[in-house]
Amino acid sequence: MSEHGGNVLEMALKIGTDAENILDFSANINPLGMPDSLKIAIVEQLARAEHYPDVEYRQLHSALARAHHCLPENIMAGNGATELIYAVVHYLQPRSALLLTPGFAEYRRALQRVGCQIHDYQMSEADGYQPDERLLDVLVQLRPDCLFLATPNNPTGLMPDAALLQAIVQCCHQHHIALIVDEAFIDFLPNAPGLIPQLADFPQLYVLRSLTKFFAIPGLRLGYLLSGNLAAMAQMKQQREPWTINAFATLAGEIILDDQPYIQATHEWLKQQRPWLYQHLADLPALQVWQGCANYIFLRCLRPEINLQQALLQQHILIRHCANYPGLTGDHYRVAIKSATDNQRLVTALQQVLGHG
């Protein structure tokens, strides 16, 4: 069983159908699809496949630097944000780390790979699956070498309190704790600057970004890491394997951040569909739903005798089961927000499965 969403082929084989017959709510990908600007560019520049990419990815790093008003030296692009999680952990070689649970599985796997001792900060339903000032106390007491934090969190879709986030940044700076902030879904929040503008003030702050979800290019894979610590970035670039980013992913990063019509259309779609889907899920008495700010919704089924993933799979709809997230149970699920038609199909299927039609 995959630790991630998007394992459509595996699920299709399980129920004896083709993958294209499954409506995938398990992967949080923009339903607008790949930007037309990128499709046109790929067709026009197919010959890029005939040449090795620049091993330094100079044009890509320059484009990302322009988008974030920083130096190319502040940035390291990668084959999705996941490659960069492993890269920063390999560079830091932490002996101890603090993870918020539930959280993205790859932080733990990367830390385990370097033999790091992992401490869990458990978030629960009682505290709304959000960190509070208790996290600051834990940081001071434990003094871990690093802390991973996702803003918004995956799978809950929740953003931490803004003042608390600043206090966490200050606390980590004060106690020389490397803070790796995963902003893979922050592009779905209009006008959210994230922590990139603060990189110059906090040299032990590392920010992860992903273009895979927002721009619907999971097959191309593109993410990037930013830090104000130029020596650290230079060393990570030296340590990496060559050519981990393919020519068309590189091309994507050079052009899509300038595609303002696509960015605006995405924000407009989410502004309409997130409240619609949230409300229709919340109206089902058998579900408890959290109001996140990303392009997915976290929920708990209050009828444990029903395996929602399996029940919906019989209707050729795949949702993300969250049982393998530390701190969650078999009753927790995550659903992507998709097009109006697909969202309606999900709600109708849930009404049938839960007997609320």
UniProtKB/TrEMBL annotation:
One Gene Ontology molecular-function label: threonine-phosphate decarboxylase activity
UniProt superkingdom: Bacteria
Record EC number: 4.1.1.81
Biological pathway: Cofactor biosynthesis; adenosylcobalamin biosynthesis
UniProt keyword annotations, A-Z: Cobalamin biosynthesis, Lyase, Pyridoxal phosphate
GO biological process: cobalamin biosynthetic process
Location of the Aminotransferase class I/classII large domain: 21-350
Reactions mediated catalytically: O-phospho-L-threonine + H(+) = (R)-1-aminopropan-2-yl phosphate + CO2
Essential cofactor(s): pyridoxal 5'-phosphate
NCBIfam families: L_thr_O3P_dcar
Cited function: Decarboxylates L-threonine-O-3-phosphate to yield (R)-1-amino-2-propanol O-2-phosphate, the precursor for the linkage between the nucleotide loop and the corrin ring in cobalamin.
Family annotation (PANTHER family): HISTIDINOL-PHOSPHATE AMINOTRANSFERASE-RELATED, THREONINE-PHOSPHATE DECARBOXYLASE
Official protein name in the record: threonine-phosphate decarboxylase
